[in-house]
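Posting this for the archive.
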Amino acid sequence: MADDESVCSTSGLPHHTRIQSLYDKGNSCKTAFQLVDGLSCYTQAVDAIASLSNPSADIDRLACDIYLGLCDIYTLQYQFKEAVDWSKKGQTVATKLQDKVRMAQCLLRKSEIKRRQGDYNGALQDGKKSLEMKLKCLDEKDARLADSYHQIGCVYLDLRKLDLCLDMSDKSLQIRLSVLGHNHPHVANSYNNIGGVYHDQGKYDQAVEMYDKSLQIRLSVLGHNHPDVASSYNNIGAVYHDQGKIDQAMDMYDKSLQIRLSVLGHNHPDVASSYNNIGVVYHHQGKIDQAVEMLHKSLQIGLSVLGHNHPDVAWSYHNIGAVYRRQGKYDQAVEMYDKSLQIRLSVLGHNHPDVAWSYNNIGAVYHHQGKYDQAVEMYDKSLQIRLSVLGHNHPDVANSYNSIGCVYYGQGKYDQAVDMLHKSLQIELSVLGQNHPDVASSYDNIGVVYRCQGKYDQAVDHFHKSLQIAALSGNDGLVTRIEKNIEITLQKQKSSTSIARNWIKSIVKLFQPNQTNNVTAPANTIDGSHNNQDVQQKLCKKRN
């Protein structure tokens, strides 16, 4: 690390020129993630301004920009108190100047601080205020307008309001391409957000395409050892994980972790996210001891840096609970889920998607224990939040209908089970498309219920649809489960086992792609398979 003199030396320059030079150098250091050097340059600029007896309006405008630069650095370091303090100083100067654009930029910083703290509604409110102010002052192709579109898109991505995120992110991207060109870090950030939408929609090839566009820009502009590059590797790894390409996912996660350890040190929330994601891989590989070790590492960093009452800490408890649930340690699982729930209720309020996940997974424990009434109660709490916050056509709502349907199946309430499972399927088809693994799982679940009702032709029809999707995706775990279900159904129709197997092989041969992967069955399933969303990867879709 360079010393102050070599990085920020501006001696002999006129006051305004010297302060501007320090500000520009601070910005360059911030972009390169040389935060100590950036902090030094900004601080020297602040000291230089303080030495002036009667600063001009130009100096005041520059001071506001410097204060926001300091806010950015502290935000990147998760030092929120200091970030808020500098944001307020910037707001004071902008208000004094009646500079609407700078006031809007201050609101944008407040939005990002709140987003990182998990206050998504507050972040959305400030982001929208920022955008409204800029729309009145700026040309429609101004890069600062793109920043507000991008920020709002980030919050929508956190809320999993994917269509709204895509709309905001695309608006941001078009402005940035027009103003900044194709090889700018902000353009990379827009591609990254769009990749996040495609990922959540299950459009994995398109997600990787967007993430890779973002990565190539970041490598070109920022170099190989930058946290944004690490975030790209992390996000590509998350897609590989969801595709069942476990070895490739682990390779990406490890690349991300090594950069983060090198640049950010051992005690940073992004490092915690890497440990979390590696723990998720171990969980799905059945390497429970290694999963617990990684998840506990993530938890300890979160507690140390973010405190006991942060959404990321809640996710760590949640994920550890999922591992306990997989081990059949239901009391410990509920204890972890409840810790997670209490944090979420405290920080996020009663009507947040993460709170819904807590109720969902507590319900899943009750479901596994055969406590069906309590399971339905928890699943319904989760559903009501999701309907309220996410609307009627969202993958999480589909998950709730699916979970309730699985309980009804366990209770022998087959008509109600089919009704819930069809609701889930219709949402999945609408939002995720016809070839998503969750759609395959829903067809399979409905087929199982029809079989129990003796509706063998309808059962086989649904298994057939499920198998086509599973085979196309190379999802070996799901293919195996469906094969078994078809075989059982055909046997119940008094068909021979050999005929059943030949029929299965013909279907798989028709639809199996060249490459297959070892993939666990997705979603809540009637056969009791674990929910892939029991444990959550932490993505980095949102860096400004």
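The mean pLDDT is 88. DSSP finds 25 helices and no strands in the chain.
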